[in-house]
């Protein structure tokens, strides 16, 4: 049996839930935000079929391109619940730009992908405002992206974010485990909070189990719970690039999903072990808040969260004082976490455990990082 429509009432794209006009309105609102991120190498502006970026070849002898793709996970659910959308884009930039910096690459440009149930131009413009702010903090250009409506697949008010960033590094300056040596010092750079990992556990503990209101004031934070949970990631890109220029940094580890041990293990080569002392720092209050409300075991906290350390630098002992002075001058809180030594073949039962499915580490290399002691006041 055929399906008939009354005369003059044929199906339309808008009737199916997709507004082309709303997309065009969103582009108009986004354009000023992208323009404030542009570097001299950007060719043209948004609106074309592809973005053009002139490779800064004069700065490099043997340039390698680096790329990273990531999203913000379920932290976006907190932003949507609070109807606050101008900071979540900073988190998106942090996830990809600081992964590039971990290998020594300078972030050049970024493209975003925003999927939503129904395109609200004003809301999308707020999201992109945050992405642009993050790009400025990372020193990279926002050269374009895509906003897609998915009616029927996503609720009208829902959205999800992803981005890909591209950077460049001189081949001889690539950082990583090949450079790490016995006697190197592990230097931790403070996080601004939870950053953008572990929010499924955060929401389960604080919203589902404890049933805490996002707009409720929390004494420990000096602000509402929602404001604490939406604190944007610190973006370390420019700080790490400056540090690598002035000191002999051997490796960086961006502390995301998998925690401190799981991510640091990725830059510790076979035959060496990083020995860290939890007594060196006190985790931020938000981590104790989560652990206490959900009776979350220490091992679970350390595998899901950064525990107050968002980036780690591994460098020679003789460069530590200069590095710490530089970071302090740049208003980056930092602390010596421990040292790298030759592995003694003994597996410590105090090593932080990482779920076997975690992308950041395997059980075979978790013992490359051994954590001892207990955090003060945690």
Automatic annotation (TrEMBL):
CDD domains reported for this sequence: PurM
Keyword presence, Zinc: no
Key words of the record: ATP-binding, Cytoplasm, Ligase, Nucleotide-binding, Purine biosynthesis
InterPro entries attached to this UniProt entry: PurM-like_C_dom, PurM-like_C_sf, PurM-like_N, PurM-like_N_sf, PurM_cligase
Subcellular location field: Cytoplasm
Enzyme class at the top of the EC tree: ligase
Catalytic activity: 2-formamido-N(1)-(5-O-phospho-beta-D-ribosyl)acetamidine + ATP = 5-amino-1-(5-phospho-beta-D-ribosyl)imidazole + ADP + phosphate + H(+)
Keyword check for Ubl conjugation: no
Domain PurM-like C-terminal: 181-348
Pathway: Purine metabolism; IMP biosynthesis via de novo pathway; 5-amino-1-(5-phospho-D-ribosyl)imidazole from N(2)-formyl-N(1)-(5-phospho-D-ribosyl)glycinamide: step 2/2
GO cellular component: cytosol
Domain PurM-like N-terminal: 65-169
Pfam families: AIRS, AIRS_C
Major location category of this protein: cytoplasm
SUPFAM superfamilies listed in its UniProt record: PurM C-terminal domain-like, PurM N-terminal domain-like
Single GO BP term: adenine biosynthetic process
EC number: 6.3.3.1
GO MF annotations in UniProt: ATP binding; phosphoribosylamine-glycine ligase activity; phosphoribosylformylglycinamidine cyclo-ligase activity
HAMAP family per the UniProt record, alphabetical: AIRS
Similarity comment: Belongs to the AIR synthase family.
PANTHER family in the record: TRIFUNCTIONAL PURINE BIOSYNTHETIC PROTEIN ADENOSINE-3, TRIFUNCTIONAL PURINE BIOSYNTHETIC PROTEIN ADENOSINE-3-RELATED
Name used for this protein in its record: Phosphoribosylformylglycinamidine cyclo-ligase
Organism listed in the record: Nakamurella flava
